[in-house]
Amino acid sequence: MSRETISQSISIVHPISLSHGKNAEVWDTSGKRYIDFVGGIGVLNLGHCHPGVVEAIRDQATQLTHYAFNAAPHAPYIELMDRLTAFMPVDYPISGMLTNSGAEAAENALKIVRGATGRTAVIAFDGAFHGRTLATLNLNGKVAPYKQKVGVLPGPVYHLPYPSADNGVTCAEALKALDRLLSVEIDVNDVACFIIEPVQGEGGFLALDIEFAQALRRFCDANHILLIADEIQSGFGRTGERFAFSRLGIEPDLILLGKSIAGGVPLGAVVGRKALMDNLPKGGLGGTYSGNPIACAAALATLDAMTDEHLKTWGSQQQEAIFSRYETWRAQGLTPYLGRLTGVGAMRGIELANADGTPAPKQLAQLLGLARDAGLLLMPSGKSRHIIRLLAPLTIEPAVLEEGLDILEACLKQLD
């Protein structure tokens, strides 16, 4: 099968061609089976072809495949927004809009913030990833490959160190950097918002420091600055709760959603304080495909499955399995390249590092190939692509999870 018609600027992690999948397993076009620890990069918290999602898609496809909501509203969009806003763990009045992706949610959030504050400056964080569209590129806390060769980006955007026990940056260090930024680079009265991931995804599954999150919330309140939480990868149960910001003891003003919102069908959303969401003129928000009826039906089925009891059980089971295996590997001295375990809940990363603590991307690249050959798909992350991203479906069968960890263990032993 030729790939000459596909842009060579698209990077491929695994040079295979998939044909079908079921829960945490996928098969390529040659019939080879793989255990999937990638999950569409966090899209498939409910696994491949979840029965409830598939049934909802089929039923909706026989009734209404599409209508642009801003031309004429349709029931699936209205029902989903009612359910979705009720699903959000915040105490203030909330409303939102549906988008086609997480990046589009971020773009719309920037418009909403500008309209509400009259300010334009945004503060983001090192290691962040918020999308590949032009405005979100500048929010990303990493140049290569996202910002290379694209010229001047929309701004102004400033970056701070991301404080986490997983990267050694303390709350005090991040606050000191903020103080310097506002003393040297920009007036605090020009800052419209902060945008932050409660757990960084592309950055290596780094969990935000709780003390810093609460200090940032107080700072935003004192200075009339809005706080955006990007829950695109960390949301919908990945950390064992509905959303990762709950563990921080804060409420963001706007929340970005995507990835696992609709069981694999393209959909995103930006939700938040109703006064903010309603501040732009009529027609300021919307989109032709945003909130497509089939995507809405899939999202409704996803919410049906994501009860708090399910999320807690799924998250704790996966966390315990990963943590137990990791601790065993550490005790055994499985490989000299085994670094830290990052993240929270079932959103876990395993760092590969050299003896001196420096990243070991060569070994991670080797691990990707070894694991793939053995029937396990893994995803890299981190500034140096040296952290394994574990994104198995939350619904993975325990035996399949253990089988995948067995393969990972065997492959870690082979690193050189």
Describe this structure in words.
The chain has twelve helices and 15 strands. It is of the alpha/beta class and 416 residues long. The protein has a seven-stranded mixed beta sheet, sandwiched between helices. Strands 1-2-3-13 form a four-stranded mixed beta sheet. A four-stranded antiparallel beta sheet has the order 11-12-15-14, with helices on one face. Helix 3 runs parallel beside helix 9 and helix 11 (361-374) crosses helix 12. The model has no long low-confidence stretch (mean pLDDT 95).
Q: What is the ordering of alpha helices and beta strands? A: EEEHHHEHEHEHEHEEEHHHEEHEEEH
- Measure the end-to-end span: 33 Å
Q: What fraction of the residues are assigned to beta strands by DSSP?
A: 15-25%
Could you say which structural class the secondary elements and strand pairing correspond to?
A: alpha/beta
Overall mean confidence score, pLDDT: 95
Number of strands: 15
Shape: globular
Give the strand order of the largest sheet, numbering strands 1, 2, ... along the chain.
4-10-9-8-7-5-6
Sheet of most strands: 7 strands, mixed
**How many helical elements?**
12
Radius of gyration, in angstroms, nearest whole number: 21 Å
Helix content: 25-40%
Uncertain spans: none
Gist?
With 416 residues, the protein is of the alpha/beta class. The protein has twelve helices and 15 strands. Strands 4-10-9-8-7-5-6 form a seven-stranded mixed β-sheet, with helices on both faces. The protein has a four-stranded mixed β-sheet with strand order 1-2-3-13.
